[in-house]
Amino acid sequence: MSIAVPARSVSVGVRRPLAVALLAAALAAAPGPALAAEAEGPPVSRPPEGASAVLDGLKTFGQAVLRGQDGMVRQVPAGLYEMRVDGGGMLQTYGVGLAGFAQPEERYTETAWSGSPLGGNGEAGRIRWVLEHSYPQLNDLAGLAKAAGAGALTAESAAAGTQVAIWRLTEGADVQAADPAAEKLAGYLQRAAQRLPEPPASLSLEPADVSGPAGTRVGPVTVRTRAQVVTVLPDAAAQRMGVRVVDADGQPVTSAANGTRLYFEVPAGTPDGTASVTIHGATKVPVGRVFTSGGHSQAQIVAGSSDSAATATGTAVWPAARTLTVHGAPGAPGTAVGVAAASAASDLSTEEEGDDRLATSGSSAATPVIASLAVGLVVLGGLVVVLLRKRPLDEEEGA
User: Fold this and answer.
1) Angular region, 80: left φ>0, alpha ψ -120 to 50, beta rest
2) What is the DSSP string of 377-397?
3) How many domains does the chain have?
4) How far is CA 23 from the centre of its chain?
5) pTM of the entire structure?
6) Considering the domain boundaries, does residue 220 fall inside one?
């Protein structure tokens, strides 16, 4: 027995998912305001996290012999530099590579490995091991010489041997220490080196940027440092707008420690904008952190540190990016496509309830939705309308 199905049901049942799919796809592809309302605010220029310093010069060093690919042989100084940290403190560093010039009075900033010559270098972790297991971290020169089979080491030969080992790992350079004891140390360090992870920044906020709507506590940003305590200071613009930096209970925060979570309390009705908070503290810069210059100066890697001044800045933006999302709607849940499909399905459901009126009057509840699309979607929108309005074909009615 064949069961006759009303032609209208077949027509609507086929056309409705097709219309939804077309509208959802069109909205997903549209770059304009029909898809999302972005309110991220202007880009904010932020200072680097951690310490900044000025190169003082090469202080403890010996000599090394470098053989270039062109066959040229030249003697180069190899050893420890010193840097003066802005706000107080001293660093001892080695050159990361042979490229560039280590110019006294050049300004440097603390940098992640990814933003330095060590970015993408598989030997970066071994270089950190060398620093942790040689001079000046190991001041027992007799013990270091014994481990390396180097006879007797001075501070100068130990520094030269350590620098040579770093150059070999950084660039695979054909370089040897001029002093035999220093060369023994360089070979030992290169053979013994194991991979260690990248050290953390001396002071940072994670994440550095947060967003949320006005009238809420935006955040958190978490303090990461080995300092005992850091000061917390909102920027002047934030204070003028009444934005406060608080803890999870809404209490103002003026000092923090490692692990402290900070929130930006943005009063309701505050115009769209940004605010920042800066934290200051004194801590040892971890061995293995890299310092780079904006010019062509040789990058430096930390081998030792006194307590040194460091800063970090976190930024809040409100309101958050308002990409439309929905759950449980046709299309991918929680995505802009899901929103478009949900909106289309809602309109189509309304139309189905008044289907007889739609078929005879020619009016469409989907018209406002289609009219709001970007100009580039007019053709697809028109196709959706046609599919929704089209009367059942004679062939369908006779089927």
Assistant:
1) beta
2) GHHHHHHHHHHHHPPPPHHHH
3) 2
4) 35
5) 0.70
6) yes
